[in-house]
Amino acid sequence: MKFNMKIKDFAAADINVADGLYHFVVTMSDNTQCRLIFTKKPDWKLIGVNRLLTVPCPICRRDYYCNCMTKYVEAFEREVLDKELISSVL
Domain of life of the organism in this record (predicted)? Predict the structure, then answer.
């Protein structure tokens, strides 16, 4: 199944400036929630994606933890950086 959801909501969850780690919670257009883990050394780079277990996975339909979202790291990073979502919440 092709994953083509868009980010509907973007919020900062946790910030560790000393280590350059930033956690953001995103809500997708189908209400799937994910935690995006970014690093800023020296530029923004997405280093992790975890689906929050609020609804079943839109890709595999599992109701428990899966790794489906890690396949779309580049798409998440591109959408966040292109829309400048990080600067809108920091």
Answer: Bacteria
**Hey, what are 59's tokens?**
């890709």
To the question of pTM greater than 0.85 for the whole model, the response is: yes
CB-CB contact of 63 with 56 (8 Å): yes
CA 63 to mean position of chain CA atoms: 18
Q: What is the pLDDT of residue 37?
A: 97
Which of these, 32, 28, 31, 2, lies nearest to 85 by C-alpha position?
28
b/e sequence 35-54, b meaning 16+ C-beta within 10 Å:
bbbbbeeeeeebeebebeee
